[in-house]
Amino acid sequence: MAEKAIILVTRKLPDNVEARLARDYRVRFNHQDKVYSDNELIELAAGADAIIPCHTERLHADVIAQLPDSIRAICSFSVGYDHIDLDAARSRKIVVTNTPDVLSSATAEIAMLLLLGAARRAHEGARLLRTDAWSDWSPTGQLGIEVTGKRLGIIGMGRVGQVMARCARGFDMEVHYYNRHRLTADLEQGAIYHANLHVLLPLCQFLSIHCPATPETHHLLNADRIALLPNDAVVVNTARGAVVDDDALIDALSSGKLFAAGLDVFNGEPNIDPRYRDLDNTFLLPHIGSATRETRDAMGFRALDNLDAIITGKEPQDRLV
Ligand code: DGY
């Protein structure tokens, strides 16, 4: 019988996923859930057939160049793949996969939570209670912005953006979107397409970002584009921090141009720009878009389906290169 393939798993994965891995492969687990340095990752990959990383591992060109020849696949436990240099992987004939679809609902839930929380100042209210500082009900206290019936702009109408649009329709929001391509009418579900951001942005009382981080979307939300938003707009980001220019967003939140921002992703995670913490009009979460039991199991199983296919010489369903 052929020896089982050796798999390097860079982070602690859900128990059900690790159980399937242990059943089918010889696995280098990371039960301490330590974030490996580049050198540790390269050393631990010696003799392995494949790596299952998360977005916390930066598989840049220089890391990929130093991976042992035994590595045939990188099956990421993530939908985002901005942490992997696809060209470098292609040049080394390493197959790369991600985990689309399975985290769309969980991520849209967090986007909606951020949108509601930022608009209704949920964290300020929660803080009043937790610090025992709630002195009285007031007709003019804690006034937020009503969500129902407002216009929502979505940047990136992929799977998560489409679920977000469905959630928003539950609040009678009018959904507008910008995407590389216009969706078909059955996927649009009445959402209004704009081919240009400068047409979309002035309409957005709420703006939710769902596009991937690429060289083209780097700092897409910059000072010029924020200036196009209506005053008192609310910005939500559950995609990647790199899509936002922190200086521009922080300026707009400090000056009162924007009412609030709800952010789950940041440049330089987990070392976020400390100015976000000092602002009362930010509702901040620690990159938990996909953090449900169901979704994290589903992400793991999707990564393993891809791995199984590659190891047995079949085509993985989520091949990126
Ligand atoms: C993803 O899957 O890309 C999420 O951001 C978690 O990594």
Question: How is this structure best described in words?
Answer:
With 321 residues, this protein is of the alpha/beta class. It folds into two domains: 6-102 and 293-311, 3-Layer(aba) Sandwich (Rossmann fold), CATH 3.40.50; 104-284, NAD(P)-binding Rossmann-like Domain (Rossmann fold), CATH 3.40.50. The protein is 35% helix and 14% strand. The chain has 13 helices and twelve strands. The strands form two sheets. Strands 8-7-6-9-10-11-12 form a seven-stranded parallel β-sheet. The longest helix has 19 residues, at 293-311. It is globular. The mean pLDDT is 98. It binds (2R)-2,3-dihydroxypropanoic acid. (2R)-2,3-dihydroxypropanoic acid (DGY) is lined by residues 54-55, 78-80, 103, 289-290.
> Globular, elongated, flat, extended or rod-shaped: what is the shape?
globular
Please identify the top-level CATH class of the largest domain: Alpha Beta
Structurally, how many domains make up the residues?
2
Order of strands, main sheet, comes to: 8-7-6-9-10-11-12
The radius of gyration computed from the alpha-carbon positions, rounded to a whole number of angstroms, is 21 Å
Low-confidence stretches: none
CATH architecture assignment of the largest domain: 3-Layer(aba) Sandwich
Question: Can you give the helix content as a percent range?
Answer: 25-40%
How much of the sequence lies in strands comes to 5-15%
Q: What small molecules does this complex bind?
A: (2R)-2,3-dihydroxypropanoic acid
Tell me the major beta sheet. 7 strands, parallel
Determine the mean pLDDT: 98
